[in-house]
Amino acid sequence: QPQLVESGGGSVQAGGSLRLSCTTSGYTYSGYCMGWFRQAPGKEREGVATRDSSGQIRYAESVKGRFTASQDNANTLYLQMNSLKPEDTARYFCSASRGGVYFWGPGTQVTVSS
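Now predict its structure.
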């Protein structure tokens, strides 16, 4: 089954940037939908950048124009986050899903101060 490990989180001031990475192993991209999610304290986990059934990346309205998801041909996913806001503070997770089953990494914390 897929193993995923996120990195690149940290503390930044509002307006700053971070680039998250997610290294994957134990599977190939084929057949899996990859995505980035986040969860803030006291809130439900929400999709940030996820692939739909057509393969297109869909971004949450709150991050459109600021976040960009990508992946290389090897085994790494990226989430470039620009113009960060305090409300982006959350633990960020990458996921691999197939047939409604989700696999998650442990997450990486992003804290944005005003």
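The two ends are 40 Å apart (CA to CA).
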